[in-house]
Design goal:
Elements: H1 4-7, H2 12-45, H3 59-92, E1 99-106, E2 109-113, E3 119-121, E4 123-127, E5 131-138, E6 143-147, E7 152-156, E8 162-167, E9 172-178, E10 190-196
The protein binds dinuclear copper ion.
């Protein structure tokens, strides 16, 4: 696996996931800096021997400011929850016209069958700019299909079908791997997904 799998936004979903990720990182950095700045400021202002006022806080800070920041962080939290949940839910519902590719996992390989009957092992060839739906099942233990460049991952279970869908936006070859420990050769249960121009 190389870095480009994590930097390439190879599906429309990838761009949405990355946007959310960068906003969360930005918010975390901003809040951490604010906390550190206040710790520093207060420890200087109220150091031993300083003449800063030490009585009770003014009334408006005790009530309004307390209620204000509690509501603000709560609403911010709800917004982030709604944003992340909406993005995940849309990733679970494939469009009706999706190309259906069947994937069977077993220790330790991925067996793939295209709608026209062509079979591949550890490789999935898909057209760009067309919705693709993977219907997946396992012959033995639990595996997990992870396509980092597309920012999607789904457990593959024995005796039950699970699904993934995506629309690849970039042509090229990307990494495909198993993301659930499934035995001795779990780390070698990998392959590639090849996104081709639709004409090919
Ligand atoms: Cu299959 Cu890990």
């Amino acid at each position: 696996m190389n870095l480009s799998d994590f930097t390439a936004e190879a599906s429309s979903h990838a761009a949405a996931v990355d946007r959310l990720f960068y906003v969360l990182v930005g918010l975390s950095i901003f809040i951490s800096l604010a906390v550190f700045a206040l710790v520093l400021l207060f420890s200087l202002r109220y150091r031993r021997g300083s003449r800063a006022k030490r009585g009770p806080m003014p009334k408006f800070i005790q009530r309004e400011v307390e209620i204000g920041w509690t509501c603000a962080t709560f609403v911010l939290f709800l917004f982030i929850f709604w944003w992340a949940a909406a993005s995940q839910l849309s990733a679970l519902t494939p469009p009706k016209n999706a190309l259906e590719i069947s994937v069977v996992a077993k220790q330790w390989m991925w067996k793939v069958e295209q709608p026209n009957g062509v079979r591949e092992i550890n490789e999935i060839h898909v057209p760009a700019d067309k919705p693709v739906r993977l219907s997946m099942i396992s012959q033995d233990v639990i595996h997990s299909l992870f396509l980092p460049a597309l920012r999607i991952k789904q457990d593959v279970l024995p005796q039950r079908y699970t699904y993934l869908w995506f629309t690849a936006r970039k042509t090229g070859t990307f990494h495909l791997t198993c993301a659930e420990f499934c035995g001795t050769e779990h780390s070698r249960m990998a392959g590639r997904i090849v996104v081709l121009p639709p004409a090919d």
